[in-house]
Q: What sequence folds into this?
């Protein structure tokens, strides 16, 4: 999808993606699933520590997404994530997706840290 990681540290991440022609729907605007994937990628980077492998992974338990403005092919979208609250193995992150100065998506993700799956 061409997602570029700009910054990634525990509790904060920034990613960017340029909307390509094949990412738009029949109305000529970015397909919601594409913008969701950008936000979800930022969410994963925000709640998983990028360098600390303590034998766990952090996975989504649920998300809410609000599409606030359309975007189109050629637009560069930037998603920024912040850890809002962590309590034990559970937490909440907020992700904001912007095109230039316009907020196009607000995404709130809930997560749980679990033991890493055993490799087969």
A:
């Amino acid at each position: 999808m061409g997602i570029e990681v700009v910054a990634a540290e525990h509790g904060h991440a920034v990613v960017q993606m340029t909307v390509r022609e094949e990412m738009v729907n029949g109305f000529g605007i970015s397909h919601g699933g594409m913008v969701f994937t950008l936000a979800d990628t930022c969410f994963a980077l925000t709640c998983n520590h990028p360098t600390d492998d303590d034998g766990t992974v952090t996975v989504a338990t649920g998300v809410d997404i609000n599409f606030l403005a359309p975007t189109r092919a050629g637009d560069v979208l930037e998603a920024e994530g912040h850890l809002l609250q962590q309590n034990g193995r559970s937490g909440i992150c907020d992700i904001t997706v912007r095109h230039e100065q316009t907020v196009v998506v607000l995404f709130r993700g809930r997560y749980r840290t679990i033991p890493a799956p055993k490799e087969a």
In short: The longest helix spans residues 32-47. The mean pLDDT is 94. The two ends are 28 Å apart (CA to CA).
